[in-house]
Recover the amino acids of this structure.
């Protein structure tokens, strides 16, 4: 069992409080991501596993870094105090800031996509003008040619119908 001085114990407590603040921030990130994507049950379970794995790694790293992995009551107290301080003092402004950043990034991405797509739209429009002109000019010819091509089939059907009606009457 290692004996620590009061300075070392205070450092360990402050490190675990910092770890609790970091865990609170990670939890807020997790809440924001879940609020944006609204995952289904499987994705929620997967996200929970990832969240708890990250939290465990953070706590493990803090404990290893600060006091070589020795567990003391004040380690847990420090983590709980850090999370509580974070939730009480920092959570709301940080969540608002994260949501603002996400909104701004979303708008920037939408604007970039529109900027990239715009030349394509102009090109399609420029190609569409001759197409619409040609379509308008060839439409009467198209329908006339369609009627002429369908004429032998129509004549055959009409002939069959006439013959059928002729023999039906007698």
């Amino acid at each position: 069992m290692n004996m620590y001085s009061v300075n070392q114990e205070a450092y360990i407590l402050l490190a675990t409080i910092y770890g609790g603040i970091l865990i609170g921030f990670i939890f807020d990130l997790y809440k924001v991501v879940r609020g944006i994507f609204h995952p289904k049950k499987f994705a929620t379970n997967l996200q929970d596993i990832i969240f708890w794995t990250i939290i465990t790694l953070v706590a493990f790293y803090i404990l290893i870094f600060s006091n070589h992995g020795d567990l003391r009551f004040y380690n847990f107290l420090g983590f709980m105090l850090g999370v509580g301080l974070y939730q009480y003092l920092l959570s709301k402004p940080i969540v608002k800031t994260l949501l603002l950043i996400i909104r701004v990034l979303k708008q920037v991405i939408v604007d970039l996509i529109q900027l990239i797509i715009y030349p394509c739209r102009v090109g399609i429009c420029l190609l569409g003008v001759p197409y619409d002109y040609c379509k308008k000019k060839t439409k009467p010819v198209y329908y006339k040619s369609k009627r002429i091509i369908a004429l032998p089939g129509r004549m055959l059907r009409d002939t069959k119908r006439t013959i059928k009606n002729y023999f039906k009457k007698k």
Summary: The CA atoms of residues 12 and 29 lie 26 Å apart. Residues 6-115 form one domain. The two ends are 119 Å apart (CA to CA).
